Every structure is written in structure tokens, then in C-alpha cells.
Amino acid sequence: MSDARRMNQAVTEYLKQALQGTVHDSHIFALALMITGLIRSKSSNFEQLGSKSGAQAQLPSRVKQIHRCVKNRHLGYETHFMPFIQIVIASLGLAEFRLSIDSSQVGRGCMLLSIGLVYKQRVIPLVWMVYKGKKGHSSAEKQLALLEQLIALLPENASVILTGDAEFDGTELVNWLSAHPNWDYALRTAKNILVRAVQSQVQRPLAEIAPPPGESQLLTSLYFTQQEIGPVNIAFLWNEKEAEHIYLVSSAQTLQEAQTWYRRRFKIETLFSDAKSRGFGLDKSGIRHPERMARFVIAVFLAYIWMIYLGVRVIQDKKLALVARTDRFMYSLFQLGRFYLDRILEECWAIPISFQLPHPRSFVHLVLV
To answer: Alpha-carbon distance 236 to 200, whole Å?
Structure first.
């Protein structure tokens, strides 16, 4: 039996077990086909997916199966992805969820807006939506809809820290976060945003009240924007490389806290790069309809999380030296997972498939890229 066929069968069996008859078998076969094809072809091109999928049908039939799947309105997040995210969340046992929100272009003219969980040096996608648009133009309505979808997934009274860039500093979002006492945040904002100190009657742009070049500072109890929401805190972080301040609206109580939180924001970019240029070529997909792209992303993100799981597994199984150099820690969990799968197939070992991720503090992983 070929490696592709073994892999396809293993994925199919796991999906059946995890979904427990809640979705039609044809959906499971299509998802297994796409997951296998994505990992083996490293492409989002349907013909390449089909050719590497390990399915028994002829190539034209495989490609048609993918097309039918992404067009199928009965395939969606709640039924085909959420059960696996619930497995992830339950297995982690986290008391604090460190989240990052961002958007990225995918397919033809589609934007993928996602909120993910920071896990080591990667981000696990929890919720997302796809829409027609441009980078930096997601509406407050879309952002709040994702947050409401997410809050239903998290354990009750879980502590959350959300980070994002200046696309997410709108008054509606900051108001929503302020209304949830267990949620903290650090969101980049613009230097021309107006704020007012509690004891003042005058609104001033952030650039006017920033500390001198080279200095960082946290100001507390400011009313934010012309709508004067808050009070909020504003962190001024000096960026030595750009020779300018980064401005954050935040609930952080100290400057160090704001800096630590905001550094996590950049990890969500690894999710998009792994789904695109370093992984599955999602940006090169020819899909132009947002609702079809959203269905295709289900397979992409399931394949991604599985590779993260295998990356953790190769470390826990003490087989890292079989797949990578150990004198230099160069590889992400996503890369290690792909290397480990290649070795598993090469050695004809049983293919481990799971979405049960261990607590991030339960193992050590260092990466330089």
C-alpha cells in the first residue's frame, strides 16, 4: 500500500472516530482527501491535492470531490471544525488563554480574519471568517462576531489576553473587551488618536503626549478617541529599529506587562505563513468565493493542527534526532511535524493522529525561526 493511501486511510478513520457519526461519510472522505493532499503536495491547487491524496478514485473524480466539498453548504465550522477545537481546548487545560487576532489575504480577493491561541512559537486557529476585502479593513461587526463565537468555546471565567495590530483598535472592540472583566488586551493604535486625561478638558493626539525619543512609558486612566471610551491605559513603546514609538491601547497595569503581551501578537503571522508560503500555498489558491474558501480552510487548519501535534509528539517520543539536527534548534513545531510524518511513512510505523495537545509548559521546544 502506498504512503498516500495509508495516510488517507488513517486520517479517515480518525475523523470518523472523532466526529462519531455527526457528519455524512462523504464529507469525511472529502476532508481526508484534502488533508492528505495538502500535506503531501504542499499546495492548495485542487489537481495537485487530488494527485497526492491517496484516494482510490481516478484523478478527475478526486478533483470533482474537492470542488463538491467546498461548494457544499452543509459543510461548516460548527459541524466539521469546532469538535476538533473542543478537543484541543479540553486537552490543554489552560487557565489563561493568550490570543492573537489578525487578517491575511487568501485565494483571489478573499481575506481570512482569525483569532488564534498562542502555543509555543505557533498559533492554533480557534475561530475565523472569510470575506471579500483588503488588508486592514475588517469591520467592527466582523471582529465582534468572531469574539462572540470564541467566548462560547472557552471555559467559563477563563482569563484571556488578546493582542492585535491597529486594525483592531476601534471603539466598539475596546468597549467589548472592557465589558468582559476576565479579558485583558494590548492593541496597537495610531499616533493621531485623540485621548484625554481624567483631570483635563482637552483632547490631545498621542504623538503630542509621547515621551522623548528613546523612552517608553505607560499612561493610565485616559479617555480614548473622540468617543472618550474608557478609561484605558496607553503604552508608548520605543522601537529602536524604526526610531519611533509604538502606541498601544491596553488594560495592562505596567509597561513591562504591555510589552510582554504585545510581543505575542506577531506569532499569528506564523499561522498565516505556515498556511501559505511555508506550508499549503493558501494564498495561491484560485478560490474567489469567501464561503467556499471558508470551507476549504477547515481542511487547511485541520492539517495544520495535526502537524503541530506531530511536532510535539516527536519531542515527547524522544525521536527528535531522527528528523532534525539537535545541535541547533532551527525548526518550528509545524516543520518538525512534517519531518516526523515523512519518517513515519518511510519506516512504515503506525501513523499517530490526534488533536490532543499537551500543556505548553509540559515540554521544551526552542526555535530560532
So the answer is: 20
